[in-house]
Each structure stands twice: as C-alpha cells, then as structure tokens.
Amino acid sequence: MSVPVEKINYYTTLCEQLYNPKSSEERTRTEALLEQSFPLFIDSNNIYNANQLHLLSINTPTDTTLALRILLKHSPNPYVQVFCFSRLKLVIQAHFTLFDFETKTQLRSFLLEYAFIHPDLLPFVTSQLATVLNTITLMGWNDVESYRNIHSDMLQFITSTVDHRIIGMQILAIMVQDINPPNFTKGALKFRKTAGQFRDTQLLEIFKTTIGVFDELIRHSIQYSDANQERRLKEVTLNLLIKCLSYDFTGSSVDETAEDIGVIQIPSTWRPIFEKVGFLPTFFNAYSEFDPPLSSKVMECIVLISSVRKTVFSNTEERSKFILDTISGIRQVIINSQGLDDSDNYNEFCRLLYRFRATIPLNEMVNLPGYLEWLESIAGFSLKAFQSWRFAPNTSMYVLGFWSRVVQSMAYYKNLDDKTVIKLQNITVELVQSYISTVLEFISICNDEGLDDPLENEDVAIDTLDMLGQIAHCSYEKSASILKNVFNPMTVQYQNLIGQAETNMVNMDSFKEALELIETKFAWLVYMMGTFVGNRLTYSNNDKSDHINSELTLKVLQLINVQQTFQQHYGNTFSNQKLETAYIYFFQQFKKAYINESSGKDVYTELKDTFGVNDQTSMLGLITQKIITNLKLWANNARLISRNLDLFSDITNSHSTSSKLLTLGPIQDLLRNHFDRNLDFLQLQNQDENRILYFQAISRLFFSQDNMNEYMFEEFMKPFDLRFITLGELDTIETFQQDFIRRALCDIFIDLRGFISPLESRHHFILFFNWFFTQYSPILERAIEAWSPDPIVLPLLEFYAEFSHNKCQRLGFELSSANGILIFKTGSQILQSYGEKILFQQFNTDEERYEYKYKCVMTCFSIMCRGLGGRYVGFGALWLYQDNSINNALDIIIQLIQSIPLDDMLVILTFSNRNHCYLKMAEVCLHMIDEMTKEQLMRLPHLSAEVFVNIIKICENGVSSTNDLVRAYSCSSIFNICQAAIKQTEKLEKPAPQSSNISTWKRSTGASISENHWLKSHLDEHPSLLQSLLSTIFSIVLFDNGSDQWSLSKPLYGLMILQREYAVKFIDTVVSHQIPERREFVANALNKLLDGVKWNVTPKDREWFTQNISAFRKEIILKNITMVPLDL
C-alpha cells in the first residue's frame, strides 16, 4: 500500500513529541491526536475524527491494527516503533476475539517478519515487540495452531546470523517470562492452562536450543563481527537460560527461586539434559571463563540447577553423579578463588552454597567421596567470608544458613560416623569463634569510622544471629565456652571502666565513648546468648545444655546487676539503648525456651546461689523486676518503653504465667498501686500508646485471678478512685477548664481505655460497669461538655467508644436490666455535648480540620455505630415511649455528617487506600451509615432532602472505593435503603388492615409505614438519585475486573427492582455503546442477568441474581471481552 510521505512524517513527529514533549500541554494534545488517529474502541474518548490526517479510514479494531502495521513498515523511528507496539498490545488485549482467522495469522506473521527484517532493533523496542508477540500468543493459543509453534518459528532466528540469534533469544526470554506471570489480571484459569501447555510443548525445546547455543559459546565455534556482538550473545543466552530455569513449573504463582522455597520442580521430561555427561561442569567452566558481570549470571544458572528436585533423576546413581559434579565445581571455585574478587560473583556463590544445602539432604552427601574435604574447604571459605564484610556485606546470612542446615540435618540423621561428627563439631566451633570475633572487630570499626551498626535493623540482625545459635548447638559446650571466654574479660574491663568513672579518674567524654563501645559489644553478645538459649527447643533437650544455658543466663543477669549498680549513681545518663533492647530479647528467648515448660529445671542451678532464682516463678519475678526498673529509668524513651511493655504483655498473655506472677510480691505491689508515681513514663504526654499497653497488661494480669469478686475489684480500682476524687469535686464548667485538669482527664481515660480493652468476659465487664457508670460517667459527661471542641476530648471519646463496644458479647446484661439503654443514653448525651460545639468551630487549613475535627467526629461515629450495632439496646422501647435520646443522637450524627463537606469526604474515600488514617476514617463513617440505615434512620419522623441526598452521595463514592471494607459497607447501606423503599412500596400497594384500633396499629409500627414517609417522598422528588446509584454500581460490575460481585449484587438488585425501566434503558445504552461486532453477544449476556429473577428481596432471589452476575463475569472473562464503558 502506497502511503504519502507527509503522513508518515506527521505521525513520526507526533510520536517524538509524545515521548519528548516540551510541556505537559503538548503531551496531552499529542496523546489526544494519536488516540483519535489509532482508536482502541474501548471507551468513548477513542472516537475516529474524519477531519484529521489518517493513514486509512478506521472503523473497526482490525483497521487500527492495519494502520499501526503500515506506520511500522514505513517508519524506522524508535519512538514510532514503541508507540505502535504498545498500541498494538492494547488493541489485541481488548479485541482479539473480534479478529478473523486471517487477521490473527497475518498479525503474528507480521511481528515475526518485522523482527527478522530489523535484527538491529534497540533493546527497549525489542522488549515491546516481544511483549506484543507474547500477548497475541496467550490470546490465540487455543484458537490458532500456528501460535503454538513458538520454538520452530524462533529457530529460524537462531539458525541465522548472530544478530538474528541475539534478537531471537531476546524475544524468547521475554516470552518465557511473560507467558507465565505471578498473577494474571483476568482470565487466570484460561491463561494458566496456556502456560502449562507452553511448558509441556515448547519450553523444553527452547531450553535445549539455548543449551546448544551455550555449548557453542563455550567451544568458541561462532564467528563474530566484533567483541560487543559476542558479549551481547552471551548475555541474551544466559538471560534465556535463567528465565527457563526460573519458570513456574507447578503453576502455583509462587516464585520458586525465592530463598525460602528451595526446590525447583523441573519436569521429568527434562531428565536427559540433567543426566547428560558434562552438563553441570559446562556451567562451571563457563563461570571460570566468562568475565563479570556475565560470570555472575552463569553462577545464577548454577544456583538454579543445583536446586532441582531429587526425583528429576532416574536413579540414585545419577543423583549422586550430579551431587559430585556440584561438589567438585564448588571446591574448584574455592581452591582457585575463581571470580570471587567480584562482589556479584561472590554473592551468587554464597547463594549457591545455601540453596544447594537446602535441597540436598545430609544423608545423600555424607557417604560421597571427598565429602569431609569439601566441608573443610567450605569452612575455610566461610571463615574468610566473615572477614569480607566490607566487600560483600550481605553474604554472612547465606554462609550461616548453609551451616545451620547442616547442623539441623544432624538432628534427624543419626547414622553419621564419629569422624564426621567430630569434624562437623570442630568446624562449627571455629565458625562460631570467627563470627563472634569478626562482629566485635566490626563494631570497633563502625565506632571509629561512623558506619551504621546492623543492630539498627534489629529484625535482620536477629535472623542472622538465630542461624548462629543453631550452628552453636552442634558442639554446644565448646561454642558457649567461646562466648563466655569473650564475655568474661569484657566484664572485667567494663567494671574497671565504671570504677574509674566513680573515682573521677577519667575524662567524661572519652569515658562516654569507651562505655558506648563496650556496651554495644555487650549488646551483640547478649543477643547471641539469647539465640543460643532460644534454640533449645529445636534440638533434643538434655541436662547438660540446660546447665550451659544456666551459665549464659547467669552472665547476662550479672551484667544487668553491674549496670544497675552503675545506674544508681548516674541514672540512665550513660545507658545504652541497644544493650537494654538486647536484654529484652534475651528474656523473650528464655521465656520461649523455659517458661511453661515441664523440663529444663537444670537451667536454674547456677542462678539459685547468686540470685536466688530456682524455678519459673522466681525467674518471672526477676524479669518483671527488670521491666519495672526500665519503666522507671527510661521514661523519655518511648520506643524502649514500648519494647519493655511488649515483653510484659507477652508474659501476661498466658494464664499460666499470669498465675505465677500473681504470687510475686512486686507484682502484688504493682497491682495495689498500678499508678505508681515512680513510673515516670505515666507522667509524660508523649506516652499515650505505651499507657494503653501498660494498662492492658495490668488488666490481663488482674483478671487472671480466680474467684474474682466485687470487693477485690473495688480494692484494685482504689488508685483510680483517688485520681477521680479531685475531678469529682469540680462542679462548674469553669473549674473543669483548668490546665492541670485537662491533663488529668486525658491520662485517666487513656488508662481506663487500656484497662477495659482486653475485657471479654461479661462478668468482668459488669464489675467495671458497676464501678464506673453511676459514680464516674457524670464526670466524663461534664468533662466533654467543658472541653469540647478542644482535641483533648479525643481520648475521652475513644474511651467511651471502647466502653460501648459489645465485643465477645461482654455487654450481655440481663433481660430486665436497663444498663444497655443507660449506656446508649449517656453516649447520646456525649455526642450532643461535643457535636453541638464542633459544628460551629472554624479551621484555617486542611491539616487542622483533619487533626482537630475529623478525628473526633469519626470517634463519635464509632460510638454511634457501636450503639446501633451492639444489640444491647432495646430501641423499640425508646421509640415507643418517645425517649428523645435516639432522636437526639441521630440528629447530631446527621448534623456531623453534613458538617463534613462532600469534597472532604471524597478526599477521605479517595485516599483511604494510601493513607491509614483516611482508611480508618472511611471505614468508620461508612460502617456507621450502614448500621444507621438498617432500621433506626427509617424510624425518624422527618429527614431533610439535603441530608438524604448527601448520604446517598457518600455511599455512591464509597462504592467506587477500591478498599473492600469501605465498598462492602457502602453496598450494605445502599441495600438497606433500597430494601426499606421496596417495603414501603409494597405496603402502600396493600389494602389497609381491617382493625378496629387503627391508631394503635399505626403507633406500634412507627413512622416507617406512613404513606407520607420521607423516604418515599425523597425518592419521588429525586428519581436521579437511584438512577445514578444504579449506573455507578452496574458500571463497576460490568467494567471493573477486580470488583466484589457478591457485595455489589445486593444493592444492584434492589436498585433494579426500584428502577426497572431505567435498568432496561441502561442495559440498552450499554449494548449500543459497544462496537457493532460485539453488540449481539453483550445483549444476550446482559439479558441472562434477569433469568429466573422474581423481583422480590428474598435471600433466595438475591442469591439467584448474584449467581447470574458471576456467570456473566465468567463468560466475559472466558471470551476475553473488553466492554466499552459509558461516560457517567
């Protein structure tokens, strides 16, 4: 086809402007022109403009693909190529099923021919072309037989020139990777099946061909035009080998190359390749021959090959040959230090050790010739690896992982001869000694050079040290002795340093620096001791290891004792946070290993004489005493306080340990005076979260007592009584508004919130209710009245939100009790007190509005939500006796909703997925609306149209949220409204009941059945509300691939019942909006949505409609239909 040059030049210029725009406006304009010239037919914006310059007249997606092919054929510009290939991909994804057989065949042939004609394509262009080829292969695999001949098609490239080989293998690498991605966006079942067929019919042949090219590279039998061509061919060959070996062979969407997976499930059909003589040695030869960075890719191939499953080999002999080849290759790399001066090679080699040992059990290697010598060579390498932390800082984890797996294998493989066991024990002792000395040397260098200490990332450091603890248990006595031998002289040095400070014989600056260094070293050693002790449960327990752990624990406790003696003089002025955190970790590991365990009594042998610790209870007492001390000394360090409280919570979470703690004097003192003035962190303002943690632990501890009664509870609450005394004497608003009262109110209700949050027992909650409600709830009400709308009321509101939360049915009062009503009435009063004042508060910035208003408003929503949904309030009695609390609560909540501008609400809903605070606010708001619309809102005698419209718009925007919970609450709210409207309509259509007492009948049923009910009136006055909702939800169901069909189908069904005529028109509009070739299919599919539907709101009918929706979505995905959405 002859195409005028000016058209080609015009589109070439547009493509260049698209990727190199001078301004955002130019880019936007260029995008619009190109979209109109090459429409995708997937939305109304892709409209063909007949007045614009075009390559040809475009009326269908097939025309678009033809125009793109013409432009590609006539313009070699890389920007044109990228645009055309990316556009082709989109058209194929959206409309592949519309193409006839000839178009499908020609399109794929064009792509292959284009690649063959242009072997010099830039890499990013080749990547785009391969992506298109992969997309069309996935789409047409089952329909077009020629699509399944990938290997034979690409073989033409590989058997041609070197440049053709390079581009062919580039394309294959991308196709192997993309034909089986971790997650398919849609059509997962269909495409997963295609990926499996590709694995069975094509992947092996591709791998064989690639191995053939790899052999040619090793034999140097290929002629190159230049060195760069050789490098490129090596690179693409290795990339393709890696992609083949990394393929998801099981179709489980799991990255089988991940370190924690280990075994790669190579199919048995690949067996001849892996059993071929010289297969693995070829890769080791290539590793020694290739220069970096290619050598690291070769090593990555070896890592993958060494991780294959055991059963891929035909027999034990073949498996042993493979293991011997691997062992031999590893030994040669170590002996010759091949490529280990490159950090990437070094890292991949360490990964090889880890992965090889992870997939080859000890019993398969131990009897092989040269096994012990091989282990010795790896041991030597490991010792050097520990010293190479500057060169390869992340390799210690792999090396330690290798040896930890060796030691773990010894626990279940009992047939090792004495020589092997002794050799492994000696090696592990050497490793432990080398690692400890390296770490201590590293700390000194970090201190001198200002480098980051790995303990700053505690989780990673602990994972590494945990493997060291496993290794140490191979020869535990010797390994522990090394640790103690390092620890003991440092303890003497530490005591001498402290002694010099106490006699003022040292410069304080130099003393502080020296103290920080030695305490950081101690921190590492204490962490190591913790891993040593914590790994006890992994192995068979014996009294000897318990005695060793006793000695290690004694060392830690003695160090704590020395440090605490020093702190008595200087407080925490010179204390080291890392060391304190290490103590906490050690106690956590000790608890894991020994607390609540029936065995391990020998761990207390060394502790008994020095510290009087002879059992679990006394050890718990020592731990809790350390926690209490830290709570007193580290008040200003919120993070360390939090870590101590985490340990305290961990201990109190178990009823068994709590029972033991209750027998201890310090714990009893703490329970009697839980608001100890010596716990300075309770006096600070930045410890709110820690206060909650503390009182949660205190609550769990206190309520773990058996036979809890009212007297015990009241005695326990006396410290709170004392704190309330001052507040109870305040009888005016002005007296409540004093600054010191402000802080006291905040603290006491934060503490009470923490105290009641763990309560799940009805008996325990009623004890608290009886103590608090009558006597102290008036103080809460007056405080909120006095301080509203100051942000100080937030913790007060949060307390009441927790207090009114009926979790685990803890508010299950007796049927004759009015307590539930009283809780709601008080909540109603609190909402009014705060709400009436915040409504008139003005804020200058968005930050102030969200921080000072919306947080409190959302807590008010939470109070209302828990009151309405708690099922402990008899709202019927409130309505029947015309109690104003429910009316007042609903009224103020509605005013608060109205006080949030819709734009702000849209921000909350829109950003709820990216901002945790917004997400929480959106969830609370929609949850409250959901509970409110279930029943109580409909009982209101009047609701203004403005409020109703606003609630509908909030729900409509909530439905559009991508957060599942926000969307679910929105859908439920809409369904509640629809259900109420349907019931209203049905009741109005029924004849009036034949009753002699019609007034009584009306009164008992409430306002919800009145012919003049506001819901019916508002819907009649604003018919577009339901129509807009229907359009929004129906559009999400039709056009959003990731939508929750079950949640959306409920409100959609209700809306269709109420708006049948509009629903039919909407369906007709959707059908007419599709491209002509798809209209019949879409019309038939949409008509099936109503099959079997009886147009009522019974659960059975709703479920039937939901099944129809699911069937519709399944058919659309199966046929790979991309529907053109409407412009709403």
The number of helices is 52
- Described by the principal axes of the CA atoms, the overall outline is flat
Quote the distance from N terminus to C terminus: 41 Å
What proportion of the residues is helical, as a percent range?
A: over 70%
Task: Quote the beta fraction.
Answer: under 5%
Main pleated sheet: none
Q: Round the mean pLDDT to the nearest integer and report it.
A: 87
Counting helices, strands and paired strands, the structural category is mainly alpha
- Give unreliable regions as ranges: 47-51, 255-260, 994-1010
The value of Rg in angstroms is 37 Å
Number of strands: 0
In words, what does this structure look like?
There is one protein chain. With 1128 residues, the chain is mostly helical. The protein is built from 52 helices and no strands. Helix 15 runs parallel beside helix 18 (396-412). The radius of gyration is 37 Å and the shape is flat. The chain starts with a helix and ends in a 10-residue tail after the last helix.
Topology:
Layout: H1 5-19, H2 24-37, H3 61-74, H4 78-95, H5 101-117, H6 123-140, H7 150-158, H8 162-178, H9 188-219, H10 227-245, H11 271-275, H12 279-289, H13 294-305, H14 316-336, H15 343-359, H16 362-365, H17 371-387, H18 396-412, H19 418-449, H20 458-472, H21 476-502, H22 508-534, H23 543-570, H24 577-594, H25 605-611, H26 616-633, H27 638-652, H28 655-661, H29 665-672, H30 688-703, H31 710-716, H32 718-728, H33 733-736, H34 739-756, H35 762-787, H36 793-803, H37 819-838, H38 846-869, H39 875-880, H40 884-899, H41 902-910, H42 916-934, H43 936-939, H44 945-959, H45 964-989, H46 998-1005, H47 1014-1021, H48 1023-1039, H49 1045-1058, H50 1060-1073, H51 1076-1087, H52 1099-1118
Helix pairs in contact: 1-2, 3-4, 3-5, 4-6, 5-6, 6-8, 7-8, 8-10, 9-10, 10-13, 12-13, 12-14, 13-15, 14-17, 15-18, 17-19, 18-20, 19-21, 19-22, 20-22, 21-22, 21-23, 22-23, 22-24, 23-25, 24-26, 24-27, 26-27, 27-30, 30-34, 32-34, 34-36, 35-37, 36-38, 37-38, 37-40, 38-40, 38-42, 41-42, 41-44, ...
